[in-house]
Write a structure and sequence with these properties.
By secondary structure, this protein is mainly β. It contains 1 helix and 40 strands. Strands 1, 2, 21, 22 and 23 form a 5-stranded antiparallel beta sheet that branches.
Amino acid sequence: MLPALCAAALAAWALSAQAAVSFTPEGRVLLTSAAVQDVQSIAGGHQMFYVRDGFHVHSATATDMSTWREQTGIRLSTSTASAALDKSSITSCGIILSSAPATGYRMFYVGVSSAGFYSILSATSTDGLAWGKESAGFRYQVSNGLGFLDSPRPFRISNSLIRLYYVADRNGGNDPANYRVFEASSTDGGLSFTQEGEVLSGEVAHQVSISTLTDGRFRLYYSQPLSPSTTVSQVLSALSTTGTSFTKESGTRLSTSAATAILTYPVVARSTTTDSHRWRMYTSYTQTGTSTRPFVSSALTLSPDPQGMSPATMLKNGVATSFTLSGEIFSTAPVLTFTIGSGTITASGLTRDSDLKLTGTLNTVGSSVGTYSAVVLNADGRTGTLSNALYIDIPGGTVTIVDNLFRPLKGGSAKITAQVFGPGRLTLKLYTLSGGLVGTVFDAEVPEGTYNVDWPGRTSLGNMVASGVYLLRATGPKLNTVEKIVVIK
């Protein structure tokens, strides 16, 4: 059972304003006295790594990503040698599959020396349990160790390229107002890194996490104070196609009241194989003013999040139209409907190309003209709505003329057919080439339909027109055209 203060803090978290992609708190303490750092897939489940008390890296395992059991022992500890770069503390770490050792891991961790110097150091393991620190100095420093470092997050781009995302002071010092997300690259397996610069310009970030979407885009999650407070209490995100320059996404992924808690170290991973369209975010959560020891809790993306429709306009012309709905959190076997008022159209041939894209066809015959919302129903009953997703319009009206060259003295006439696909006023008028009105052959409010009119070559007063070229001007619902008619006596 949660302590009362923990429960209150999580309740405040759950009520925070969120936007797509939306994470919903699961409301449980998973581990106590733990600052979560990384989650790795292992045989039969997952392994979580976390820092405890700033001195040790520990780990826990779970088969369902929800119930975590601490593994015995310590994965990594601060060094005892007075000159060691991690003598004072270990603050954070990130792990990557390693090619040396083969089928093993390399951990990048931030060590702080007794003199207060920050360094990114490394250790290796073949099983994720026993770790050995690598010698040969540090992997990375800022301002020769004087600059703040935190939250190293390695990501393998290829066999020869590793990117390391981390938080540092942009001026090489240690001012939280200047904390930013940077990226460095390594081509020697992570033994040395070259800084490539700030990846999210202007955004304060205290900790960072990196993930990739199904379509290959990178998503960066980062923690930040909720203005005007300096307490870190929200998690935001940014997207990139290259992984080197990110664009901030609107809204907040997760937040809590600054007066209630500090929200740090977001770690985002795919959910279990049974609901792999979802993401789970682990964060460390420290109650403001009541404790200095964080606990780990989690939040989950629950509802589908439709974001864009193509094409955004269709015609009710009897032809089924193919479409693509983009977004996130699409489960297998979803249902997609389009609604306007009490009217509903259900998509047919719906295919889930991925958790980011649905394709199908839509038959708009008999549908109301107007703007529709797209409603995605996932297999678990969760729904997501994209307002103003689709506008259904009527096709343009048409005019055809049979015998547009005729002899009225021999009983001929121009046979005019006008077709409109919506209600409105339909007008057919004849003019001379100089713009003079000859006559009105049709003028009425009409429903959708086809209308046939004969013009025998006479004016509105019944007089026979002279030989020559006349212009038929047709106006109506989405109809505005001019056609020629030739009269020969």
